[in-house]
Amino acid sequence: MEEKDNKTRTGLGFYIPKRYVVCFMMFSGMLIMNCQRSCLSVAIVAMSSRTKHWDGIKWVSKPAEFRWNSEKKGMLLGAFFYGYLVLQIPGGSILGRFGGKKVLGTAVFISSILHIFLPLIVRFNEDLFFAARISQGLALGVALPTNLYIWGKWAPLKEKASLVSFSVAGLSAGMLTAYPISGLLCQYGFAGGWPSVFYVFGGLGLVWFSFWCLLVTNSPLEHPSIKSEELAIMDQIHTKEVKETIPWMKIFTNLPVWGVISANVAFDASYYTLLITMPLFLRDVHKFNVATTGIVAAMPWFFMTVMISVTGLLSDKFLKGLLSVGATRKLVYDAGVIGSGIFLIIAGYIESSESTVISLCIAVAFYGFAFSAYMVNPMDIAPRYSDTIIGVSNALATIPGFVGPAIVGIVTKHRKASEWIEVFYGLAFVGILGGFIFTVIGSGEGQEWAKYQTLPDIEQADEKANEEREDYKQIKQPEKE
């Protein structure tokens, strides 16, 4: 009878661990979020310059629909980050009240609806378009805090780095997806080209939202078909949301927390600026057309996506007796920022378009090292408040998201290669400085004030989990009736 029940709960006798389902949904959610965030970087080329569009019968030459200079484009590209900044810090409190499933699902739903209406909005009023992009950033500002919040409940200790790294690899996969598809849609898409970019990625967000509602729960204990064997490997069991005061003073006076913040700000200053402006660099300096720009600009992010996942797995291997947690995070981060800085500078000096793309691919691949290090570190030092810490950290790190493109717009107003070299030197310096600070004050040791209470052994954890799941079912039963 027990075997029959298991088969009923797992389909045709096949069981996919629910934490892997959550991981895939988090990965795809991050992917769609970054598609909606970054597709404008390619679409804006078609929106503001003369292009050719295939209408299904012949090529049609289309004049620039919007006459934006480099400063205006830099401002519009950075608009998303003005809103993205706002909910980073209060994100932890919002998550504690509503739960990760509802918060992230609502965020993607709102952003997707706005995304579908962006072509109509920008043609109606450019200032309203700017405000709509800010609103999208506002909605999606809870995404990264939600990621750590959910993994604080779902990730076993020995799989933490790999699960978190794979899920956030969706961000770089978003560029890998958004850039080539945006370029192709601008040149071959429906609705006249560039508007189809917003319709497609907005629609994908609504499809994702439907699956998210069906497949994901806030914690393992709430999942209706999770196996007890999977519950037993969880290192902490969370049955209730405990409302408690966040220890802001301890957070802001803790050096390891500031190590995370320094690493995050330095990384995002380089990452966001390159993410947003790379298509402009390829168009201005190497004269790629809009479709080619989208495809070529996507290539580096493929390597970053791969390296984030690989580095997460390697980090988990290192932690099995080779290096301490802190040493692993610092080694991986420093390798990332130094390697990316070197190859960004090289990319600025190379005249060959092919060699430039190769150098950019290597530079962005190194981003994967740094990203997988600092993103996991809040769960090392303060698992109980990791979502709050990454919210504070990412709030400050979001500032370069709108400052960086604006500065690039000013520096590169003549669209010369020498101007872009200055940009790449600046990005390399900021990244390496962040690595130095992280190495000096960062840590991998859990802070006593921020640890979860854990049960001493797996058998006791399994027993408690099963008891509390039954209690949870009994509490929820009257609601179903």
Q: Any overview of this molecule?
A:
This protein is about 75% helix and about 0% strand. By secondary structure, the protein is mostly helical. The chain has a two-stranded antiparallel sheet. Helix 4 (about 70-85) runs parallel beside helix 7, helix 13 (about 255-285) packs antiparallel against helix 14 and helix 13 packs antiparallel against helix 16. The chain is globular.
Short characterization:
The chain has 481 residues and is mainly α. Helix content is 75%, strand content 2%.
Keywords:
481 residues; disordered N terminus; mainly alpha
Instruction: Name the CATH homologous superfamily.
Output: MFS general substrate transporter like domains
Question: Cα-atom Rg, whole angstroms?
Answer: 23 Å
Mean pLDDT across the residues is 80
Question: Count of DSSP E strands?
Answer: 2
Helix content: over 70%
Task: Please name the CATH topology.
Answer: Growth Hormone, Chain: A
* Largest sheet strand order: 1-2
| Amino- and carboxy-terminal Cα gap | 27 Å
CATH class: Mainly Alpha
Strand count, sense and barrel status of the largest sheet are:
2 strands, antiparallel
Instruction: Note the overall shape.
Output: globular
Domain module count: 1
Coarse structural class: mainly alpha
Strand content: under 5%
